[in-house]
Specification:
The chain is mainly α and 58 residues long. The chain has a domain of 37 residues. 48% of the residues lie in helices and 0% in strands. The chain contains 2 helices and no strands. The protein is rod-shaped and about 65 Å long. The termini are far apart. Bound molecules: zinc ion (ZN). Zinc ion binds next to loops.
Amino acid sequence: MSCPICRKATDTTYQPFCSRRCADVDLARWLRADYAIPAPLTEMDEETADQPTDSDDK
Ligand SMILES: [Zn+2]
């Protein structure tokens, strides 16, 4: 098994990472990804907007 951050051999203390630094990098990525996830409502809005409504619009 290798570190998912830098591909070095993992350390049992920090597995699946090779060092505390790589563990911190992964945690930071997770936190950022968590904030970047759009609200589920946006996806529903897109699907609703996709339906043709021009005949009933005016
Ligand atoms: Zn690493």
